Amino acid sequence: MSLLGETLIGILILAGALISALSAFGLIRLPDVYLRSHAATKSATLGVLLILLGVFLYFAFYLDHVSAKLLLGILFVFVTAPVAGHLNGRAAYRTGVPLWKKSVQDDWAQQSREQEKGE
């Protein structure tokens, strides 16, 4: 792997950095905690995963070193970030944090009513 490998790794890392920057912009600009949670979990997770994948490929092909720590880091971020975002959103909803005034649909309200009827 020469120029093609370096280009692929560079594109992965650059794409991850751009997606992470977009995620940070979303955290600042989005109007409520639920949309911010979406920006933090979806795009930040993808950005970090692309960066870690680029670094893993660099180590594997150019330094001949397969890093188990990077693989565990990729797995850890992939599993924990979406779960943490979901739990933050659920905790905010249960404590009464209001939705954005222009929100169209509230799926959790329907689910909460169904659970109350069942109990």
Quick gist of this model?
The chain has about 120 residues and is mainly α.
Overall average residue pLDDT: 87
Overall outline: elongated
Quote the distance from N terminus to C terminus: 61 Å
* SS element count, helices: 4
Tell me the fraction of residues in β-strands, as a range: under 5%
- Structural class based on helices, strands and sheet pairing: mainly alpha
Largest β-sheet summary: none
Give the helices and strands as they follow along the chain.
HHHH
The radius of gyration over CA amounts to 19 Å
- Total count of strands: 0
Low-confidence stretches: none
How helical, in percent, are the residues? over 70%
Lay out the secondary structure.
Elements: H1 3-29, H2 33-62, H3 68-94, H4 107-118
Could you characterize what this model shows?
This protein is 81% helix and 0% strand. The protein has 119 residues and is mainly alpha-helical. Helix 1 packs antiparallel against helix 2 and helix 2 runs antiparallel to helix 3. The longest helix is centred in the middle third of the chain and has 30 residues, at 33-62. The radius of gyration is 19 Å and the shape is elongated.
